[in-house]
Amino acid sequence: MRTIEATATIHPDRTLTVQVPPDITPGEHHIVVIIDEQPTVPVPRPPLQFAAYPVGLTAPERTFRREELYDDER
Predict the structure, then answer these.
(1) Phi and psi at residue 69, to the nearest 5°
(2) How far is residue 54's CA from residue 52's CA, in Å, rounded to a whole number?
(3) pLDDT at residue 46 in the model
(4) Which residues in 1-74 belong to E strands, given as ranges?
(5) Is 0.70 surpassed by the pTM of this model?
């Protein structure tokens, strides 16, 4: 017997789809579904914070084009 805990979405047509781990064999299985009274509310995540440093080219003559990085004639 295994216990799998997951968050699921019940669609408006009252269907529920569950993705099980790959080591569960295909076929009929006895399962138990427990549904909480209140649906879970997703917790909003704060936006990512990036440093606001001005980053420019190290030198105007260096553009780091492919031809400059690799010594191949294409």
Answers:
(1) -80, -40
(2) 6
(3) 92
(4) none
(5) no
Note whether 5 and 35 are within 8 A (CB): no
Query: For the chain, what is the radius of gyration of the CA atoms?
Result: 26
- From CA 47, how far away is CA 42, in angstroms rounded? 15
Shortest CA distance to 4 belongs to which of 24, 14, 13? 24
Which residues are CB-neighbours of 63 under 8 A, at least 6 positions away?
57
The DSSP output letter for 23 is T
Helix residue spans in the chain (DSSP H): 66-69
What burial class does residue 53 get, using C-beta atoms within 10 Å of its C-beta: 0-12 exposed, 13-18 middle, 19+ buried? exposed
